[in-house]
Amino acid sequence: MKKIFSFFIVALAFSCGKEKVLQLPEINSSEISEINDVSHAYLFYDETQPDNVDLNRKNLISTTNWLINVDKRLTLKQAIPKIKFLQDKKSNSSHKNKNAKNYFTCHDLNSNNLGFMEFTDVVYQNESLDDYSGVLSNLEDAPNSTAIAFEKNNGIVIASTVLKSIIKETTKDSLQFYLKRCDTVNSLIFLNFNEDLSFQSYIDFKDVVNKTDLKDAKISNKEFIFN
Asked: Coil, helix or strand for 182?
């Protein structure tokens, strides 16, 4: 079993004889600090590539837990297609381990060590989001539903049939307050992320959502990446 103990705020790898640096996204504190039996994939920020992404996946073993190291400077538009590719590669492998999971690697600021965020069951979908009133009308067919859109300027918009309103003045600091207001029986919450968000911002928002103590509402495993 391979264990992860060392801390790297910068991950290093070698490709074609050249050393490359990957800046890990930061998280205030992670509930997961150690994972056994792992393989690594790296998504480097590389301005020499057409999409600014260089994927190194040479040492991935399908039966292990996968640690996906994504440079925090990449946008979701750049990173998500590569992440979906890795998800498909693992799910379509002839050698599977139903207990093996997928994690993003982060720098845990509280412990000054590595931290991990699981995304095994996340299904990324692309959609265009132009009209929030349209989102609210679509949700009317699904009682107790809430759609949260994380904008490219880090603003947050909430369209909720639970709250019966569209809230556009939300900030990251008040997000947990509104999530708890939407915490009703059989309530489903959908997360929508602008494709121009940095991966760091994505981790920031996901961390707030994951750490909100919801009693009844469920966070949908489908995440929508909109333009």
From this structure: coil
